[in-house]
Each structure stands twice: as structure tokens, then as C-alpha cells.
Amino acid sequence: MKKNLKYNLTWLAIMVVGYVVINLLEFVGVIDQFGENTMVLIGINIILATGLNLIIGFSGQFSLGHAGFMAIGAYVCALITSSISTPMGMAIGMIAGAAVSALVALIVGIPTLRLDGDYLAIATMGVAEIIRIILNNLKITNGPAGLYNIPLLATWPVVYLMVCVTTLIIVNFIHSRDGRAVMSVRENEIASESMGVNTTKWKVLAFVIGAATAAIGGALHANYIQTIAPTDFGIMESINILIIVVLGGIGSITGTFVAAAVLGLLDMILQNFGTLRMVLYSLALILLMVFKPSGLLGTWEFSVRNLFNRFTKSKQKGDA
Amino acid sequence: MTLLDIKELTKNFGGLTAVSDVTMHLNDNELVALIGPNGAGKTTLFNLLTGVIVPSEGTISMQTDNGLQVLNKMKPYKVAQTGLARTFQNIRLFKDLSVLDNVLIAMTANNKEGFFESIFRLPSFYHKEAALRKEAVDLLKIFDMQDQVDNLAKNLPYGAQRRLEIVRALATKPRILFLDEPAAGMNPEETADLTRLIRQIQKEFRITVLLIEHDMSLVMNLAQRIYVLEYGQLIAEGTPAEIQKDEKVIKAYLGGES
């Protein structure tokens, strides 16, 4: 029991130190406005990609509709913060966005998650398109022009906090009874079902949690960029998130963090190359996939527990 | 006492009748074998009983703590929760997960860990998780696998993978255990070990075992009763001694006039 407390406190310390370090760097001037922009976008991408990794990497369901759920979160939160432009409004907006998105995922998930592989990918892609077209035609979402003058409420501390919160929820979910049941679906659905695991329920649950975190990512995106339009949430956005997941390693949350950071920084550095930027970006992706097909980290996961165990082991060796 | 009662069970695949009019029963705490030539419909019968495929006709009913329950149209996971566990002819472990996780997953239905409990890592989560882990390790100990808890299932040797499948099935706390060709691909020594193991399981866990097997040494040694299936039909039922003398069975296996 004490050990668990130690691990949890270590994680808390890592999060607090991370916050302090970023604050310090900003104060000294190492991170300028441009750097902060990159950092916030990396944070939002981490939130989006960890949710997708839960769906693809852990429950083994190939979804191409993540941008749709992101759009729901973005629009709901933008509409709410436009009338209540306070941090409280932001909190309400994020929760409401996540709730609406989860509800849509539940309704969509129950019939579509009977499909698998390519069929599911196409079905989820269709769902995202439907969401985008609805947003394109509704009056309240201002049609194709989208929403603008959304208050800037997603400052970097808010994004940092939400990265921590969503990651904690997903990681704790994975390392529990629920997460094991979800992974058993990925491993072997027939075996899992004959062991008394209600596979439909766990697949849908993973999908719903992934959709809710996508909505939080979308909400932060809307309140940081300050303008959103339906075209922002097309298939390319879904694929961008998918690239982060695949590049980091399908089934590794740590990998998702690393990939989001690497791609974010790569994008920032390549800004100076003008039109060549997309060519170099794609080239980097191809090279990475050729030389590291399982992703940057494969399924490796950073764990405080293992770190402590290794430390105590080497200490014992030293004593002996 | 009759635990599982199967009446006039039939399954048609288009024009093909894979299982036809099978009536059989399993008693409490009994070791029964199901044999038959290749393609006789043994695995189809298993799949019918475990809910993987839905029967065309007939009923399957099971005596449970809540009275008699009909299993016919139940989903596989519901059937498993009623107390029917199985292993597979071609091993179906959760390959990329640890041995311990394989067993823990089988305990999902009996595990009352709540969603919020685990998300917020409440103290009760750690208590339940520790208790569960202990239960799983204790179970693995019976099969001498306690040293392999952290190994990935795919890295186990073949015999151990077969054993892990049995442990995993037992972790669901079944009343009836179905073993689909547990000795497939084993050498005579391993088969002898397995024979001992199955007997031990049945005694220790006080459950009913139904096994499909081609290895006659194992079947004749273990089974109290044997059902023989050919072309989807039951052609004989009886004790090992009776089956060995049965003319229909001899004909099914060896061919020829009789």
C-alpha cells in the first residue's frame, strides 16, 4: 500500500516539476511566444492522440473518425464560452462537449463496433463526415464560415492541466479490470467472450472514453486558435492524429507523447523551409516508418514502478 | 444429478447437417469424453453448447443456483458467466499479455472493481486488485506456473500454453469445463502428465469435465462415460469398456462390414 502511494506521489511530483520548469523557461525567455504556440499545439495533440491510442492500440478497433468527435467538443465549448467567457465557462464547455461527444459515440458505437478492420475504419470515417456536414449546415454553428472571436481561454497552464487529467484517466483505465478486459478484446475476441467478458460493452466503453477525450482536445483547440470552421475537422485531421499514434507506437502512451512532441518540433523547425516543408515532413515520416515500423517506442511504456525496481535491484547488487 | 441437459440438438449449415438430433446429459462431478472421427461434428457441438453458434433446433438447459436455465440463445459471455468454461483446439491465449493478465481477464465477470474506483485509484481499488492478484497466483501455483506470472503468454512452451488455457478457464469459476483436444500435439509423456492433471482438477475443483480427444489412451484412462459421434449423430454411449466392444464404434473407426 505504501509503495503505491510512493509511485503516485512520484507521478504528482513529475507533473508539478514539469509545470515549474516550463514556467521558469518562459520567465527566463527561452520559450517565446512562438515556442509557447508550439507547446500548446503539442499538448492538444497529445490529448487527441492518447484517446485515439486507447481505441486503436488497446481495444484494437481501427477508427478514422476522431476529428468528428473533436469537432463536437470544439463547437459545444466554443458556443458555451462565447456566452460565458470565464474560466468557469471553459470548464462547463469542456464537460458539456465531452458529454455530447460521449453520447454520440455511444449511439454510433453500438451498431458500428460490430464491424471490424477496414469496415469499421470506413464506418467511423463516415460518421466524422456526417458530423462535419451537419455542422456545415446548422444555423447555430454559423455554417461553412464557422465560429470566430471565441475567447482565448485555453492558455498553456489550462492545456497542461488537461493533458495531465486526460492521460491519468486513460492510463488508470488501462491498468485496471476494465483496461484488461478491453485489451483481451484486441488480443482474441472469441477467447475473451468465452471467458465471460462482454466484449461489446468494453469495446463501446473504450470508444466512448476516446471520443470524450477527443472532445476535450477539440474544446482546447477552439479556445486557443479562436476561430473554427467545419473544414478544420475533415479526414486530414483524423489522419494527422492517427500519424501521431502510429509513429509513437500503437499501444504505447509514452510513445504518443514522444511522437506528438517530435512532430510538433519538426513542424516548428520546418517553418523556415517554406513550400518544401510538407515534402520534408512526409520524408521524415517515411524514413521513420521504414527504419522503425513498430513506431518510435513500440509498446514500451515509461513506468515509475519499473524505474524504482531497477534502482533497488542495482542497489542490492552494489551491496552484495 | 443432471447438470447439463441437451435435448434433440440440431444444427444445419445450409443443406449440411453438422449436428443432428443429439441428446445427451452431463451429471454433476463427472468426467465424460466425446469422441468420433474427424469431421464428426464434435467441435460444432462444443460451439453450440458454449453459445458461439446458435442451434437450429433443440434445447440446452443447465442446472444453476438460480434454477434451471436455458442456454440456447444466450451470448457466449453469458453462457460463460452461467458456469461453462472452455479451452480451444487451436490455442487462443491473449498472446501479448502476461500470464497473470491472462488469468485476471478470466476473472473480469467476478471482479466488482468499479469504473470510478479505478480511475481515481481509491484505496479500495488497491485492496481489490491485491486480493485478485493473490487469487490468480494461487491458482497458477496449483499448476506450477507461479514463476511465470510476468512472462508473456506467447513466450511459454507449447505444453505450458495448453496448461495456461486450462488455468484461465478455471479462473472463471466454472461448474462445467469443456476441453477441446487438450492433448493435441503432445508427446506420450506430456499426455500422461495431462491425464493426471485433468483428474486432479476434477477432484480438487469438484467440477464436471467434458473432453474431446483423439488420444484413446487418455480417453480410456480418464472417462467415466463416453459419447461417440459420427456424421453429426450419436452412435453410442457407455463406459470405456462398453465402447471398446461396440460394433458401430469399431466400424466408424476402422470401416468394413459388420
Walk me through the structure:
Chain A: InterPro entries: ABC_transp_permease (IPR001851), LivM-like (IPR043428). Chain A: Its main location: membrane. Chain A: This is Branched-chain amino acid transport system permease protein LivM. Chain A: It is found in: Cell membrane. The complex is a heterodimer of chains A (320) and B (258). Chain A has 13 helices and no strands. With 320 residues, chain A is mainly alpha-helical. Chain A has a single domain (32-307), classed as ABC transporter involved in vitamin B12 uptake, BtuC. The longest helix of chain A has 27 residues, at 2-28. Chain A is globular. Chain B has helices spanning 42-49, 76-82, 99-106, 115-119, 123-142, 158-171, 188-205, 216-222, 240-245, 247-254, and strands spanning 2-13, 16-27, 31-35, 57-64, 67-70, 84-86, 176-180, 208-212, 225-230, 233-238. At the A-B interface, helix 6, helix 7 and helix 8 of A face helix 2, helix 3, helix 4, helix 5 and helix 6 of B.
Notable traits:
heterodimer; A: 320 residues; mainly alpha; ABC transporter involved in vitamin B12 uptake, BtuC; 76% helix; 0% strand; globular; B: 258 residues; alpha/beta; Rossmann fold; six-stranded mixed β-sheet; four-stranded antiparallel β-sheet; 10 helices; 10 strands
